[in-house]
């Protein structure tokens, strides 16, 4: 009886609601404003499709009705789908499904926002432009500042929503595969730069703060700090979904597709599980840290988890029932979605040889709890897995239920045209740039400042009055791309150290000296001590040399073989410091090291030629400004 009454009500008010939406759409389109950042201009030719905004549907489907339960909306969606359509929705790139009773636009689950909004889709990824790029995660961790991480996460989440609202040919989804909270166990790991480091305690705090800021904005952490002991958070919906990755024990690139991390139980629980527990139970973790009593009904955390490429004690992570079903689902009560690392389900068969076919790999992964394939293996082989009894329709429906549930929580099925209009927010853009500068400043580390025994003769900070004529040397003095690290978008502007010094008013003599590795034709002249000496000025007030690593040396799919700088850069340091001290013995010689992973620079710490050493990560868009402010005393480094 109630269901009949509900249908009568919907049939009566449905057309009226649709007419209202049509009027809102036309009114808003006529009055929309334009954001100053070019990539965020509302594109009337490519407005995002909305699953519940259509004049062509005469009756509002149940999955669009926000007044009924989430479970009823999910059931409505699943009942409308054919088996073939269900399988097509288990990959990261959803096709559009349009029928008179159902409208599901294409959807991009794969979006990146590691240290700023980065990209969507694959392959190649569609990079975001005019976004804020912060220091690489290892640099953010070097600040040891939760309040700063909160600001950074808030900016990333806000820009993610803005990019989606902007429309365009490629519309990003609301689901982001970040943060990376693996433990940086081997210092040669190419992706260690993406993580907060080797400490489970620090990584846990970073994970919890970042997840809450990404999903809910900065006010959660701010309110928590101000709250009384009995903390009662506001009931708010997440704006995007954060995804804790890579679950678990992933910390090398060499043979990453078939590597098995063999770990004893104590190391597993004390090292590798801690940060993921904090990520999934972020609200509870932070409340416990601040001594707040949390209502047991509230326990917000990451809405997604990504299982990793590697195996754990012989079992691939994405086919591990103990990891995904027992630990994640049963013990940790995780109700969000589990996504494979990209094409990791295929690897269960291809590289681990744990399954005997793609169909069996698909069945294994979905049965133990994977809901979404980052890749297309399930879309290609899912129907065969069903017909071969490796998979059941119930397994597929369970996975879809979790995916639809997350999208409902994010308000995906409640989006309206009014969300597509953008306001001129130059103030916000300027504020975001300031957060990027603040983050860069706080991540700088001062390793050496004069002889330890002579506190009165510190070479830093420099003075523009006494150190106006500066020689700047090295492959990182004017290297915009290297400043951004990996997984980054394209900011409006990147400030290099060379640009920062010139902006300060210094008279700069720029000598590149060599490129990062010495393996290209971009070598300047040829690297000998005489060549360097010939380019130095006799009236030089100070020399600053910028060296380090970049993504050609450490990156995804590329581990390092050494903890030393490339030989060509070692030679550059030796030649430059000797020439500099022979020509201008009283001019400070300062070494700046830019890197994602650890470097052994102990030989320079004890060198009497080198007066000061600054150590930093890939600092993002404001890196040059930050380094100049540190060099000239506008900011006192504390990272």
Structure notes:
The chain has 639 residues and is an alpha/beta fold. It has 22 helices and 22 strands. Strands 17-22-21-20-18-19 form a six-stranded mixed beta sheet, sandwiched between helices. Helix 5 (146-165) packs parallel to helix 6 (200-216) and helix 9 (274-280) crosses helix 10. Residues 1-45 and 418-424 have low confidence and may be disordered.
Features:
single chain; 639 residues; alpha/beta; 6-stranded mixed sheet; 4-stranded parallel sheet; 38% helix; 12% strand; disordered N terminus
Structural class estimated from helices and strands: alpha/beta
The total of beta strands comes to 22
Give the CA-based shape. Answer: elongated
Strand content: 5-15%
Uncertain stretches: 1-45, 418-424
Taking the sheet with the most strands, its summary is: 6 strands, mixed
Placed side by side, the strands forming the largest sheet appear as 17-22-21-20-18-19
List the total number of helices. 22
**Helix proportion range:** 25-40%
Mean pLDDT: 88
Rounded to the nearest angstrom, the distance between the terminal CA atoms is 66 Å
In summary, what is this structure?
By secondary structure, this protein is of the alpha/beta class.
């Amino acid at each position: 009886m109630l269901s009949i009454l509900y249908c009568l009500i919907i049939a009566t008010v449905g057309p009226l609601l649709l007419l209202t939406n049509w009027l809102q759409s036309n009114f808003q389109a006529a009055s929309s404003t334009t954001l100053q950042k070019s990539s965020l201009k509302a594109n009337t030719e490519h407005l995002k499709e909305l699953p519940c905004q259509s004049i062509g549907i005469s009756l509002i489907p149940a999955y669009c009705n926000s007044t009924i339960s989430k479970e009823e909306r999910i059931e409505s969606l699943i009942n409308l789908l054919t088996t073939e359509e269900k399988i097509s929705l288990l990959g990261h790139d959803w096709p559009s499904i349009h029928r008179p009773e159902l409208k599901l636009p294409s959807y991009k689950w794969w979006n990146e926002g590691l240290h700023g909004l980065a990209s969507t889709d694959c392959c190649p990824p569609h990079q975001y432009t005019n976004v804020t790029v912060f220091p690489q995660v290892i640099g953010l961790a070097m600040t040891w500042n939760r309040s700063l991480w909160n600001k950074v996460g808030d900016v990333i989440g806000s820009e993610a929503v803005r990019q989606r609202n902007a429309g365009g040919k490629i519309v990003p989804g609301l689901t982001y595969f970040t943060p990376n909270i693996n433990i940086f166990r081997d210092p040669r790991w190419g992706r260690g730069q993406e993580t907060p480091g080797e400490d489970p305690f620090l990584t846990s705090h970073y994970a919890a703060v970042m997840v809450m800021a990404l999903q809910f904005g900065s006010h959660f952490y701010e309110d928590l700090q101000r709250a009384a002991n009995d903390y009662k958070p506001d009931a708010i919906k997440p704006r995007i979904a954060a995804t804790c990755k890579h679950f678990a024990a992933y910390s090398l690139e060499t043979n990453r597709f078939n590597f098995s991390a063999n770990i004893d139980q104590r190391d597993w629980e004390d090292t590798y599980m801690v940060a993921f527990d904090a990520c999934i139970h972020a609200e509870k973790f932070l409340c416990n840290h601040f001594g707040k009593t949390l209502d047991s009904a509230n326990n917000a955390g990451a809405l997604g988890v990504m299982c990793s490429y590697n195996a754990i004690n012989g079992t691939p992570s994405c086919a591990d029932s103990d990891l995904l079903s027992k630990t994640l689902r049963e013990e940790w009560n995780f109700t969000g979605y589990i996504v494979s690392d990209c094409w990791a389900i295929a690897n269960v068969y291809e590289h681990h040889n744990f399954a005997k076919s793609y169909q069996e790999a698909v069945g294994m992964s979905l049965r133990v709890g994977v809901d979404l394939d980052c890749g297309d293996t399930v879309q290609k082989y899912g129907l065969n897995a069903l017909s071969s009894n490796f998979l059941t329709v119930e397994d597929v429906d369970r996975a879809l239920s979790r995916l639809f549930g997350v999208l409902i929580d994010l308000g995906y099925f409640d989006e309206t045209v009014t969300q597509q209009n953008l306001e001129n927010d130059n103030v916000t853009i300027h504020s975001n740039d300031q957060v990027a500068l603040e983050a860069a400043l706080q991540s700088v580390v001062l390793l050496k400042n004069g002889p330890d025994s002579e506190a009165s003769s510190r070479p830093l900070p420099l003075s523009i009055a006494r150190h106006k004529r500066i020689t700047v040397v090295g492959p990182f003095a004017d290297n915009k791309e290297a400043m951004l690290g990996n997984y980054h978008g394209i900011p409006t502007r990147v400030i290099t150290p060379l640009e920062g010094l010139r902006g300060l008013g210094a008279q700069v003599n720029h000598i590149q000296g060599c490129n990062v590795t010495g393996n290209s034709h971009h070598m300047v002249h040829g690297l000998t001590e005489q060549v360097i000496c010939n380019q130095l000025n006799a009236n030089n007030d100070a020399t600053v040399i910028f060296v380090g690593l970049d993504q050609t040396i450490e990156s995804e799919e590329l581990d390092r073989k050494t903890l030393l700088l490339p030989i060509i850069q070692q030679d550059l340091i030796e030649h430059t410091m000797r020439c500099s001290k022979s020509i201008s013995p009283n001019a400070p010689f300062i070494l700046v090291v830019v890197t994602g992973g650890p470097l052994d620079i102990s030989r320079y710490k004890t060198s009497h030629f080198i007066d000061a050493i600054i150590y930093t990560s890939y600092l993002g868009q404001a890196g040059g400004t930050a380094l100049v402010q540190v060099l000239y005393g506008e900011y006192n480094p504390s990272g």
